[in-house]
Amino acid sequence: EPQLAPEMFGFLFQKFHGLVERSVQQSGRETSSEEFSVLQNAANCFSLLISKKGVSSQGNGDEALQRLISAMATITCNDAYPSGVRLDTSISLQRFAKALPGLVAPHTHEVYSAVKNFLRQQDLEGSEAGKKPVLDEKICQQAIRVLSEMLPLPQAPKDMVPFCEEIMLEGMVCKSSLIRSAVLQSITHLKSGLAENVDAGKLEFLVTKVCYYAGADSSSSIGIRSSACRALGALLSLEPLLRATNVFEQGLSSVIQLGSSDSGTLQVSLAWSLANVCDFLREQTQHKNGSLGHEMTQTVIRHLPSIASLTMRLAECNDKIKCNAVRCIGYIFDLCATLETDIKGFTGQAVDCILTALRRGNTKSQWNCCYAAGSFFKLSVSADAELISRILTSVTSLMKSSVNYKVLSHAISALSQLERSLYPPGRVFDVCDSLIQVLLLLDRQKASSVKEEDLKELATQLLMACIEEGGKDDGKVVELLVSEKDWLCTISEEVSGCLKRLEGN
Questions:
Q1: Known PANTHER family for this protein (predicted)?
Q2: Are 141 and 148 in contact (CB under 8 A)?
Q3: Is residue 500's pLDDT more than 80?
Q4: CA 22 to CA 202: how far, in whole Å?
Q5: Going by fewer Cβ within 10 Å, which terminus of the chain is more open, N or C?
Q6: Separation between Cα atoms, residue 115 and residue 103, nearest integer Å
Q7: Is residue 28 within 8 Å of 78, Cβ to Cβ?
Q8: What pTM value is reported for the model?
């Protein structure tokens, strides 16, 4: 119960903090099994509580939390404690790292050293041939996850280079599939600022190893291949790799080849990776000097048809796959525009994918469809009028039926991308009608939150634009607006003034 959370948090904090400080003062071996049992359960409950959004350490202060996290790091990294306790504490520390990375960051070196020691142990043989992972192996996995949460921090380019150059590379060749998987998952946290400080040769070697684990020839499990696929999606979105065209192309080819798999787990990762890479390339071409360089541009153009074909096939899968695939379709539209290239047969097939996903997809798929629709509308100067009309029909229908904020805001943003001069005859009325339905929904809900006010502003601005750019000369539009005048005038003075002018005319 949310209203009890702060009180429970304070109680658990005090109890757990006392238990930890007492156990740290002892040698680990001298702590009774009963005390360790309490410690394990308290650590688990406490970290779960703090990982919940909206629950904070009010009244306890950062200093107390830092002492607590310090104790947890000590237990995780000190083999004087029983392995079971260390494992539970490492799981709790990982939750803290995810929720409060800045407070865990001072213990990066301690955890890093522990992982290095774990990797050097000769008995860390992994789970091959049916062997269950040993506890130390699981502790190492959690410690790597703790460190991975440090990678996006502002200080990472200075502090986390050793993790990338040593732990990642050593972990990639570790016998343990558990450790390899943890390292592959950590790669998804890499950012360009940190990657710029990593030795170029080691970064390129990392790509090569990840390509190997992603491939079918590696005999890796679907789980490892799926993690490798996501890792490639992250690596190919790092700016340093734009200067290594051959390595980038090797990675991109490996991702595309994964399209031959019918594993749903792998397809989820594949759709995410394709969307991540295309989004990165789109951003580079739109906002970073407008160019990838001649060689890289030609590489992307060469592979774009294969990416488009694979993405449209993924858009026909379940919603976990579809949501990223349809968004990627939008990114491909954007790339075609900025790279001034055309993919034969893509536009019509892509529109069919968008329309199908709008009808059958869940809300996440629908708002990603709306993003893709907006990207299509930006290209609509050269698009078939029938395709424009079909998407307009679907988007405006969705606006009348959905109550989801993100779906509605993405739908309105999509419509805003289409020049009013390109609206098919009579379609300004449909857009205005759907916008009024959104405003009616917000009015009934007495919109007060920031996001609802933002949505109201989006709808109002597009409605005004439609009125000024053609709607005021359309009898059906004028009749619709006048019929709703009384409450529409309460939205804003601008709308009120516009409607009064229309009525006067």
A1: HEAT REPEAT-CONTAINING PROTEIN 6, MALARIA ANTIGEN-RELATED
A2: no
A3: no
A4: 44
A5: N
A6: 19
A7: yes
A8: 0.87
